[in-house]
Automatic annotation (TrEMBL):
The chain crosses the membrane at residues 240-261, 267-287, 308-328, 334-353. Belongs to the glycosyltransferase 2 family. This is Glycosyltransferase. It comes from Roseomonas elaeocarpi. It comes from the Bacteria. It is found in: Membrane. SUPFAM superfamilies: Nucleotide-diphospho-sugar transferases.
Amino acid sequence: MPPELSVVIPCFNEAANVRPMVERLDACLRDIAWEAIFVDDNSPDGTHAVARSLAVLDPRVRCLRRIGRRGLASACIEGALSSSARFVAVIDGDLQHDETLLPTMFEAVRSGRADIAIGSRNVEGGEKNSGFSPLRARISEAGAALSAALLPTKVRDPMSGFFLLPRVLFEDVAPQLSGRGFKILLDILLSVRRPLRVEEFAYRFRPREAGESKLDATVMMEFLGLLMDKALGGVLPWRFLSFLAVGLIGIAVHLGILAILAEAGQLGFATSQWIATFGAMTVNFFLNNRVTYRDVRLRGPALRRGLLLFYLVCGIGAAANVGVARLLLREEGLAWGLAGAAGALITAVWNYAMSSTLVWRA
Ligand code: GDD
Ligand code: MN
């Protein structure tokens, strides 16, 4: 029987959790024709090999292996887009979500009662992971409050990564999804123009038994980027904002190096300025590679080539900065502050445009 429900399971280094996940789905989805789609970003622990070995024996198991890309949200999107079933669910691959809720969630959506069913930690009976550090709990709450302010639909746990919806609804919003970061449900809720009928189901966020969490500082930055992107209605793309933020850090690095060299007093100002410039450009390059262009990150020989190109691009940008500012100051009689700002703006746009097309090909 063709599957009615595709269960999309994003995985990164979850080899030990793949088989238990299939066993648990098998146990709780007795009355539903289901398939499991493991989406693995080429994990070094061989998660895909485990998923494949199960798929060979069980036609309900599928494996989507992505190479050269990383990201929870985009993994969920691609998994869901590979489905032909009428309904799609997304659940973490580390067994922290309660899969036994799936039949009830399925019924809520299949019956037409709800447009989307969400596993929630914030409704009566739901429970947060008691293992959350106070800081993570605080961040999680702040994120939820910030998201609630932007959402057209009232959802108690918009940060949940556990939900179920009709595939057509997903395909409707798919072109609007940013695919960045960790929070695919939030992305969906922010992208649907009309209010949705939501039903939330309480569950206890289980402690992780095997493997480790992938939530880190970059993921947090991406989350802020996603909100900013949606709040600004795409006026300024998140990539550009990230590029600017990295640029500001670069200025701080530049001034820091300059101060240290001046303190040491061994080198002349011009030499110090050169060293500071290269230091700042290098830091900017690696930060942009990690954050701004995370999805098209350069590695190996491409990394070296990219760094050289980046020096070149920024060098031309700096020359343009000085040239434009001087021109505006002299010819147009602009105040020095305005002339300087115009020069800097042009440099930022130039650096960004060249980085996005030549250096990273985003
Ligand atoms: N394919 C792929 N690519 N999967 C990934 C990636 C990635 O880059 N990063 C993480 N995953 C997978 C993990 O293997 C895991 O199965 C799932 O996504 C969740 O990642 P965790 O690293 O375990 O996240 P968490 O438990 O800290 O965070 C969870 O927090 C929410 C509650 O606040 C999120 O994953 C949400 O789904 C969850 O509801
Ligand atoms: Mn987890």
